[in-house]
Amino acid sequence: MIETNRPAAAPAEDEPDLLRDQFRQLLRYRRLLGAGVGIGLLGGVYLGISTADTYVATADIVLRAPTDDPFNPSLAPDKAINIGSERQVALSSSTADEAAKKLGVPDSGVPALRSGLQVTNPPQTMVLRFTYTASTPGEAAKRANAMTAAYLLKRQESLDVTRDKMVKGYQDQRDPVAKQLDELVKQINSMPSGPGRDAAYSSKTDLQSKVNTLNSNIAKLQALDMAPGRVTSPATPPGDSDGPGLPMSLALGAAVGLALGLLAAWVRLVFDPAPRSEGDVARALRAPVLGSLPRDKSGGGPLLAAGEEDPRLAEEFRSVAFRLAYDSRFADRRRLLVVAPRGSSETAAAVAVNLAASFAETGKDVLLIEADLRTPVLASQLPTDAGGRPRWSQMPGGPGAGGRPGQQGDSDWPDGRQLVVDAGESGAFDLIPGERVRNVARALTSPRATRLISEADSPNSTVVVLAPPVLSYADALALVDRVDGVLVVCDPRAVHRSDLSRIRELISGAGGTVLGAVLHTPLPGEKRGRGKGKGKAAPAEPAGPAPAPAPGGKPAPQPIPYEVAEAEQHIPGDGTDTVALRTVRTGRR
Prior knowledge:
Elements: H1 15-26, H2 30-50, E1 55-63, H3 77-80, H4 83-90, H5 93-103, H6 110-115, E2 117-120, E3 127-134, H7 137-190, H8 195-222, E4 229-233, H9 246-270, H10 278-285, E5 289-292, H11 311-325, H12 328-333, E6 335-339, H13 346-361, E7 365-370, H14 378-381, E8 384-386, E9 419-422, E10 428-432, H15 440-444, H16 447-453, E11 461-466, H17 475-480, E12 485-490, H18 497-509, E13 513-519, E14 561-570, E15 578-588
Parallel strand pairs: 5-13, 6-11, 6-12, 7-10, 7-11, 12-13
Antiparallel strand pairs: 1-3, 1-4, 2-3, 8-9, 9-10, 14-15
Helix pairs in contact: 2-9, 5-7, 7-8, 10-18, 11-13
């Protein structure tokens, strides 16, 4: 036998498979991806339309620092010019005002004139690049050239003003010294020879040196080359618009939108409490995923899948049955409990019926027990014939021994009624249909129900039990100690990982084992999401068509008060876990 209950841990070498699996999970959120692409396309349309009538003209200016020897290689103009400050001057309002005068733009249009200009500095250069954006090619080139000319003019004026101020400062220092020198020369001419005249000559020499130094500084300033720079590339009318064009804008928008959609899907995936993959289901249940029902074929049709009508679905059920048959834990006892987490049991019923048919196809004597005593529907939805009385009814204390239904434990289920289900080419299997009873918990834990489940102890026999959702009612927990192998049937998008972990803990605490899981997609018309009433008994579901009358003309059961059994775990002094049932009256059916 093969042990199938293995931890679902991906090995390290399967990292590419994990990445592919995560990418497939992102594709589950098609609405987010579609919304992102849609927003990107709208942005692309706006970009394409808004830039379709814009033209950009460019002009380059090389800045020069004032110098008296432009061919001296030791001069470093980048030390004398702050390129960042010059860029701000080029973008200033004074430059725009000067350009507006040349272009004939009124004062009210100066802000708009400035808004179209962009000035950049290529790295490691003394170049200012004037880029102007306008609605026509000629206007863009005209305004770019006007802005460069205005900047050069303003820079020339600034340099001239600076030089004039420095010259004037030197002249203001020289004039008093020159006047003092002239007066001293007159005094020397009238002084007689002697020590006094010699001292006067010494003072005259000092004053003359100061005057000569100041004259030299003034001469250097006046001899400076004050050219602010030169235009190396005047602006010319561009031949094409500045925008990337509508097709390219749409492509860029779609790419950016897809990236945003993937980011939103990834964030949604991170915070999604539902299992993101089969591996998440397996890790939460600590049991393998035995099968995944084909899309749109997991519900809404007949409970018994016909191989000719849907071979994929039939083969999937056979695959699950064979995997269970080779599991040592199931093969040793041949008992299987099929449950859903919460909500509807329709898909779980379909899985139980088709697994019973698959086991019958392998030559097993299969008994399907509908332990859903709240909404029994199998007898009305399966092709059945009345069969012989089951062997358990002949046991002491059973109805066949003279007892009356309801005498033991005040329960009339199971009452000995047995149906034979025709599974077509798969053969036939026996069905013990469920019936609504006054006390569900007492019926499920009665000795007759225990003897019925023990039919699996017979050679070549298998018992499949269908129970209500395990998180909605405690019926499944009442059966776990006798049917310890549990198969969970769930839609991974409608259940939380915490729910699956809770199911595993409840079943393990009751002494059972989760053999595996069967995944399916939502039923037709069923909304995705968790069932209502978290942690509480779910509301009664419609019972569907009335069950067929039992052999002998037994009438269908009438609506009676029903009770819900909840499990309570007790730990006795010996350390073993037991599960008791507490009955809570919830309403009427």
